[in-house]
Amino acid sequence: MSTTQRSQSALPLPVLPEGWAAEKDFKPLGTLAPATQRNIEPVGPHFLAHARRKRHHRTFSEDERIQAQENVKKVEDDDSGEISEPEDPLMLQRDAKDWKGQDHYAVLGLSKHRYRATEDQIKRAHRKKVLRHHPDKKAAAGNTEDDSFFKCIQKATEVLLDPVRRRQFDSVDEHADLEPPSKKQAQKGYYKLWNPVFISEGRFSKVQPVPKLGDEKSSKEDVEHFYNFWYNFDSWRSFEYQDEDVPDDNENRDQKRHVERKNNNARKKKKTEDTARLRRLVDDCIAGDERIKKFKTEERASKNKKRLEKEAAEKKAKEDAEAAKLEAQRLAKEKEEADKAEKAEGKKAKEAAKNAAKKNKRVLKASVKDANYLVEAGTPTAVQIDGVLNDVDVVMGKVDNEELAALAAKLQGKTKATEVKGVWAEEVKRLAGAGKLKEGEVKMMV
Question: What is the pLDDT of residue 81?
Answer without folding.
Answer: 53
